[in-house]
Amino acid sequence: MFSLFERLVAYRYLRSPRQEGFISVIAGFSFVGIALGVATLIIVMSVMNGFRQELLTRIIGMNGHIAVQPVSGAIRDYDDLTAKAKAVQGVKLAFPVVAQQAMVTYRSQARGAYVHGIRPEDLQKREIISKNIKAGSLDNFGKTADKLHPSDTVIMGRRLAESLGIRVGDRFNLISPEGNMTAFGTMPRQKSVKLTGVFEVGFHEYDKTVIFMPLETAQGFFKIGQGASVLEIFVDDPDRVAEYGFILQHTLGDRVILSDWQHISTSFFQVIQVERNVMFIILTLIILIAAFNIISGLIMLVKDKMRDIAIMRTMGATRGTILRIFFLTGSTIGVLGTLTGVGGGLAFAYNIETIRRWLERLLDMELFNAEIYFLTQMPCKVDLHDVFATVGMALGLSFLATLYPAWRAARLDPVEALRQ
What we know:
The chain is of the alpha+beta class. It has 17 helices and 10 strands. Strands 2-3-8-5-7-6 form a 6-stranded mixed beta barrel. Strand 6 and strand 7 form a beta hairpin. The radius of gyration is 32 Å and the shape is elongated.
């Protein structure tokens, strides 16, 4: 596409001599601007993708893809409904849960908590919990020496345990918001339980509020009887929950109401998507400004090289040759800047958590507060589609920026240029 002569001249113009240093400065700023724009865009898009992926994984990992709730009261025939749900193609897991609020008291401290009553074998299948036990284990969860009474063992989130100072093996009290009626009025209903494990899923709100206890224990403590608050269902493809929900509603009947994660958290994830699109547009302006620098730099270069262009034209160079020389000069800046930005952006994105910790130690300040961002680590997920889109956009703007100056150089009249 480009002859050796065109490449040699374009490369010579990229290395402007000292008297043309200002043009080199503009070219340098253009290169740095495109590199920073591409790198920043890749990093920000990767962080936004990471936030969405982490929040999606933890939210639906804790609450299930589809929640089956009774029209009124509690689900009494949950074993039958669980068997019917598991028979539907595409359903991976289905199990009953008792979900209620309670207060945790330990020594002179108290915290609100959200108690999930679940069977031990079902909890083992929830990998987001079973694979993230940080202290203790699930081996003793649900086990008791007295088979006539339900187990009093529980597990809780790490941040909740740390805020109360509870360690594995300690006993603490749970207080239900619904009390027992006595001759002296309503008395708080409380139960002493033993902590047998501590989990950390990386989602601040869950690590700070959630407690798991055996299903039978929760049924007795919350006076639900042989019932469940909700039936949680996990499917193969979370993005197709609407299709699965239609089939499950038909299978389970009209005595229950189904809701999926898309409806429950739709506004939350829409906000993330809108922010992601806005950030993409805003950061694209950085690359656009760098492209304008390429235009101004090339226009000045063409103005400075008018005599050179005239001499090349009189020696037989065509307008196409001149156009390709200046197009190659400007596009080289864009290509090199884009490649540098891609390399720097990917390197930063893949090591963003290490860089974040290093900056926190260097500046002696917290840059990523888990209570604000809900996550304990800086999330990052590099999407190749975003990388290719960024590269394509940067190269496209760079190539377009070179067309007008190159066209002006090709349209230059050699006679007029030599007279000046």
